[in-house]
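hi! just following up on the protien thing from before. the input was this:
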Amino acid sequence: MAKLSEWLLKLFGWQVQNQLPDFKKYVLIAAPHTSNWDFIVGIMARSASRTKMSFLGKGSLFKPPLGWWFRKLGGIPVYRNKRLNMVDQMVKVFNERKELILAMSPEGTRSKIQYWKSGFYHIAHKAKVPIVMATLDFKNKTINMGGKFFNPTGNIHADMKIIRAFYEKVQGKNPSKQGPIAVKP
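and the predicted 3d structure came back as:
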């Protein structure tokens, strides 16, 4: 799959800058998320990097007929209609596993939003794992995987300055759907 993904990305003009750290555990945030194409390009980039990653996806994706496929790709279903504390659940998963790279979209949706969801940050902070940043820049057809990482300090607003600086010039497939790179005050 890795060779096929490399070939397809190159065929469509994408460049992959794979700078993923050699950590056993971390939260990888990929942004901006403005299109269904983000998932396809992201899966190909993951395959080309030969890195095993898990991702969170809405529960409806894991129903038949394709649910088995999303699980095989490393998907972990999120059921929004249930009152579950996803942060604590994922921290537990991090604590139980020797290796886990959890890829997340901080926006949590393809729609334009006012604020990023902060779950990625709280998972990384509580699990004591770094946040690694990745971009899907459709304007320049560049995927930057792991260009920057840091350990969250617990001061989310100060740490968001690091994140904002990394993503501010990146353009998603649908720029009109990109919201500000911020979490609720």
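The two ends are 42 Å apart (CA to CA).
The chain has one domain: 2-176.
cheers
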